[in-house]
Structure formats: C-alpha cells, structure tokens
Design a protein that fits this description.
With about 650 residues, this protein is of the alpha+beta class. It has 5 domains: about 10-280, Transferase(Phosphotransferase), domain 1, CATH 1.10.510; about 335-365; about 440-505, Trypsin Inhibitor V, Chain A (2-Layer Sandwich); about 510-570, Trypsin Inhibitor V, Chain A, CATH 3.30.10; about 575-635, 2-Layer Sandwich (Trypsin Inhibitor V, Chain A). It is about 30% helix and about 20% strand. The protein is built from 19 helices and 28 strands. Strands 1-2-3-4-6-5 form a 6-stranded antiparallel sheet, covered by helices on one side. Strand 1 (about 10) and strand 2 form a beta hairpin. The longest helix has 21 residues, at about 335-355. The chain is elongated, with a radius of gyration of 40 Å.
Length: about 650
C-alpha cells in the first residue's frame, strides 16, 4: 500500500488533523490525530484510494457498504469495544474515527519481545470475550480477531478494535479484488482464521471465539498454533487437528483447548468462554501489570505546527527492527550491547599494547573489564529500574526479582536486597531484590449492586476509590439508575483506582403487539400481560365488531411504551341502539331513505308498493339494534280489506 506520509498535517472533515502514522492494516493506515473540535487525541483509520481497484473510487455501492459498517460499529457501546465516533469520505479516502488507545496493541507487546503470563492472558482473554459477547448479542460478527485488533486503555483494559469495517472489506462481493492489493501475505490472511473461514464458509460467532483462542495461545507461547510457511497446510491443519497444549497452563490450557475445537458446534460461545476463564482464574495468581507502551506525546491544539511537534517516524521505519518474540525466547543480546562489549575489548587490547603485556596498569585495566574478582554490592535502595539494569550488566551478576505490596511505597521502589550493601560478589552470582508493586490493594465494596450511582460513588470514595466507566443496559429487575454489577475482573484494585460499573436503564421498553380487530379479549389480555403491560378494558358500541371482541388497542400496535405502561383494550359491547322512526303516511321509497338514515333497513312490504304506509313492525319509537330491518304495511287498493291502523 502506498504510504509516503504525505497525509501528515492534513485535516479530514474539517476537524481531524493527522499527526503521525501509528499502524498499518490489511487495507488501511492508522494515524494518531487531533480532534480540533473536542481538543483530544483520536485514532483515524484511513482507507487510501491506493488500495481500491480501478473504477472503485466514488463507487456508490462500495462506499455505502463501508460507511454502513462504520455506522453499525459506532452504534456499539461497551467497555471492551473501541468506540467509533465519526466516519466519512474525504479527498484522502474513506475514514473512521475512534478512541485513541494509549496502551497500544497486543501485537505491539509481542513484537517488543513480551510474552504474557497465564494470568495476564486470562485477563486479556476475559476482556475480549466480554466484548465479543456484547457484539454477538447485537447480531454482529467481528470476523478479523488478531493481535493488532486487541488494543489497551491506559489502565490495561483490553478492547476489540476494527469492528465491522474489516468484514465489509473482505466480504464475498469485495474481498477478492481487495485481498489481491493487501499488504498482508497469504499466510497473514489465514493466520488467525477459523477452520470454517479456511473452507470459504461464512464465519459466525463461534469463528470469532476460535480466532481469539489462537491469539491468546500466541501471547502465551510466542507462536500461532498450526502456522507454517504454507497457507494451504495451515488451513488443512486447522480443519483436521485439535489444539493441543500438552497439559500446559493448567486449567487455562484446558479452557483454550475446548474453545479451539475444529468443529464449531463443539466450541463454547463467547459468554461460555468468559465463564470458563473466570473459573480458571481461581487457580492462577494475580497478574502482573501488562507491559503497555508509554502514552503518546501531547499534541498542540492550535496551528499547523502540530505535525512538526511529533517525533520523526521515518527514523523508526528505516532502523533495523528488533526480532521481538524470537529475541525474547533465545535471550540474544542486542546489537548495542554487542558493540559495547566489543569497544571494551578493543580498549583493553590497545591498553595492553601501549603499557606492555606485563605492566601492572595493563593488567588492572584488563581485570576491571573482564576479571572475576569479587566486587562490592552497592546500596540499591534508591536505585531505579534503568540504573539497576546497568549495574547488573556491568558487574555480571544475576538478578532474582521478588515482588510484594507494601503501604507507603510506590511501584518499582526497592524494598530490600540480599546480600547487603558492601558484600563482595563474583560474576554469575545472584543479587536478590524485593521490589514494591505499590501499596496494598483495596477491596472493592461488596454492596455496590443495588445502590444508586450517587450512593455507589460515596461508598467507593470511603475506601479511596472512584467511579470509572459506566455502562448502561436494560434490566428487568432493577430500576433505572441502580448499579447492576461491578465490571472488574478482581475484587481488589490499586489504591486510587476507578471502578467500572454497569448501571440499569430499567426494564427494556415494550412494543405494543399487533392485536387484530375481532380478537377475543382473553387473547389480547394474554399477549399484553406476557410483556408485563397492564390492561384497561373499555367497552363501546360498535356496529361492525361482535360483542365481546376487540375493536382496537390504544396506543396503536408498534408503539414503543415504558415497561410498566397500561394499554387500553377497546371492546365492543354490541351494535348501537336506535329508535324506529315514524313511517305512517310515507311512501315506500321515502320510508326506505328515512330508515337508512337512522341506521336501519327496509324489510318486507305488506301491500301495494305505490301506496302510503299505514304501520311498521317493529312499531315507531321502538328501540332496536343498529341495522335492524323494519317491515311495513301499506294502504290496500279500493275495495280491498282494510289494514289495521299503525300501533
């Protein structure tokens, strides 16, 4: 992918100034940017036009698909999913704006040579599983779980990144054309894919779980299961072989083996994986802090000089990169350390030549660099980590580092040493130091669930803690504003920490069901009460709906209402009652019109049709149902028998 950094300093959407390049994905470049509107750092993922096949620039269907995926990702709000804030199309290409995660990525940790302990992997895995559980509940599949898409906050909490847009870019409609232009190799593309993805099948929520297991296993061991230089072999191995950790990592290993089954039906869901990890946490010690990257530089908030304030990244790109994970496993010295040792050796050789091989000065110089006489251990009480490393490197001593917590100390402070200062040690001997992990941990109050957020804040403040991220969700059993649970892995945290809470939005709103006109009252009541809605019956005359049947519901079907709302069911109590009008002396045609206007109809006519009406049946002023047909008797012709008078 072309990337000459000509984008640095440009402003997207009149708001986001690109400051420095911080990563490269399969199809995108990621930048640290400054939000001119909100005065904050953000991450901008830019899909450059360079990656798009010819003719795709401005192509409506593709652009719409990408932006739709970005909008879907922005609708997801969860503590373990990176929040997307904005998206759009610019003259530099399509872009998505999200939170800037100061802690870096899992890929960055591993590339820096850090493997994670089982406890650390469990903590990262549980955060990621919670994020997956949430998006799966929303019907969203991530589809591209890999170390570069697991990012960390400054507190070390893991969040899933790249939600939605990767899936949009690698779908069947666009994937083939784009994959051909990706900077990733063929093995990169399949490294974390599930067996079903390797077969070309559509991934589902179990596919995300499998990919996460591969990532966690790599963080533990330094290698991705089933990986080889042959992508086809990798795919076949995933389809036929079970993940085998050979009894490693205790209960955590068994949880990962189960979640890494090749048959997706045999794998747990993200929720079930989270439960398994929590159970495994009981067998593991508390994790050490994650080796997060240092926070990025402060960004100037005015002027176009912001880009100039960022350290030059070209020097980083052209410098040789450390082998990271390989160097960590093999314990190799760095090039800088090798050059330092070589300089010392050359200096000693030159001194020998100048002073004479048998001279005392030459011997003293050689011995100071490479001799094995005991050297006194200095007082390490005020030594920081960097200086301690220098002392050990120069003396050749081996460090045994023991950690513990102690009130009144800060993390990294050396609490004690053995042997004591002044003791002579030779090269290769061990110096033991006790290092503080900080003050004793604070127990999170156990009574926060059920409290209002304000009361929970007071309870936390009483033990020196504060409220952290607040996630809201609907709960059928808790009123709005009440704490449902504490979103922390462990019950003890660092003094002064903020505690993440999950707070109730109250019961989820209901949608008035579609109750058809003419339904029975019993059926309507059953449907409404099943949703927890109250029912108010209201009877009205209705000339169409039979008595006892539903005429309508108020509010109308499809209306969203509060969970404790009352829905009015309007029920027919039968046709409207009307009085028979006086029809005597009227003609038959005229009587028919009068009856129709009254909501009645003309029944049988007894007598000539062209004669006046003498009487009706039912008689005039009788109360009858709407729609009743009234019979009439007309005056007979001359000489015929006289009809009775209208009663």
């Amino acid at each position: 992918m072309a990337n000459d950094r000509g984008e640095i300093g440009r402003v997207l959407g009149g708001r986001y100034r690109l400051v420095t390049h911080i990563g490269t994905g399969r199809f995108t470049n990621v930048y640290l940017a400054y939000d001119l509107s909100q005065s904050r750092r953000v991450a901008v993922k830019l899909l450059s036009e360079d990656v798009l096949p010819d003719g795709w620039i401005g192509e409506g269907a593709f652009v719409g698909r990408f932006l739709e995926a970005a909008e879907e990702a922005a609708a997801v709000s969860h503590p373990h999913v990176v929040a997307a804030h904005n998206w759009g199309d610019s003259d530099l290409g399509l872009y998505v704006v999200s939170d800037y995660m100061e802690g870096g990525s899992l890929l960055g940790m591993m590339d820096a040579g850090h493997l994670l302990s089982p406890s650390q992997v469990l903590m990262v895995g549980l955060d990621a599983a919670r994020g997956l559980e949430h998006i799966h509940d929303q019907g969203i599949i991530h589809g591209d779980i890999r170390p570069s898409n697991i990012l960390f906050s400054h507190r070390g909490r893991a969040r899933l990144a790249d939600l939605g847009t990767s899936w949009a870019l690698t779908s069947s409609e666009t994937g083939g054309a784009l994959m051909a232009r990706s900077v990733f190799s063929a093995i990169d593309a399949v490294r974390y894919a599930s067996p079903e993805q390797a077969q070309g099948l559509t991934p589902d929520h179990k596919s995300d779980v499998y990919s996460l297991v591969l990532v966690l296993t790599e963080a533990l061991s330094g290698r991705v299961p089933f990986e080889s230089d042959d992508p086809e072999y990798t795919q076949m191995a995933k389809m036929s072989r079970h993940l085998d950790l050979a009894g490693q990592f205790s209960r955590l290993g068994r949880v990962l083996e189960q979640a890494g089954r090749p048959e997706r039906d045999d794998r747990p869901s993200a929720r079930e994986l989270g439960h398994g990890l929590l159970a495994a946490a009981e067998t593991l010690p508390r994790p050490a802090p994650l080796p997060l990257i240092k926070p990025g530089p402060e960004i100037p908030d005015t002027g176009e000089s912001a880009a100039a304030a960022v350290p030059d990244k070209h020097s980083e790109e052209t410098a040789p990169k450390a082998k990271g994970r390989m160097a960590f496993r093999e314990g190799r010295s760095t090039p800088q350390e090798g050059r330092s040792a070589l300089r010392k050796l050359l200096a000693a050789v030159v001194a020998l030549v100048v002073l004479g091989a048998v001279g005392f000065g030459a011997y003293a110089l050689w011995d100071s660099q490479f001799g094995t006489d005991p050297q006194p251990v200095p007082d390490l009480a005020e030594v920081d980590e960097a200086r301690l490393a220098r002392i050990l490197g120069e003396s050749g001593w081996v460090l045994e580092r023991l950690e513990r917590r102690q009130d009144g100390t800060v993390a990294g402070q050396i609490l004690g040493q053995a042997p004591l200062a002044g003791t002579g040690l030779e090269r290769g001997e061990t110096v033991t130091v006790w290092v503080s992990l900080g003050p004793e941990l604070v127990v999170i109050p156990s009574n926060l669930a059920g409290l209002a957020v304000e009361d929970a804040e007071v309870s936390l403040a009483a033990v020196g803690l504060s409220v952290g991220d607040v996630t809201q969700r609907y709960d059928e059993n808790a009123i709005e504003g009440v704490v449902i649970e504490v979103d922390e892995l462990f019950s003890e945290v660092e003094p002064g920490s903020s505690v993440d809470l999950v707070v109730s939005l109250g019961p989820e709103p209901r949608v008035v069901p579609d109750i058809a006109t003419g339904s029975s009252l019993a059926v309507a009541r059953e449907q409404l009460e099943a949703l927890g809605l109250g029912v108010l019956e209201w009877q009205v005359p209705d000339n169409v709906v039979a008595a006892g049947r539903v005429v309508r519901v108020e509010p109308l079907p499809g209306t969203e209402v509060a969970a404790d709302s009352v829905v009015t069911v309007v029920v027919s109590d039968g046709p409207e009652k009307v009085r028979v009008p006086l029809l005597a002396t009227l003609g038959v045609g005229e009587a028919s019109n009068v009856l129709e206007q009254a909501g009645l109809c003309l029944g049988e006519v007894d007598g000539p049709l062209d004669s006046e009406i003498l009487a009706s049946n039912p008689p005039a002023d009788t109360v009858v149902d709407f729609g009743t047909c009234v019979s009439v008797i007309t005056r007979p012709e001359e000489g015929a028998e006289q009809s009775p008078q209208e009663g």
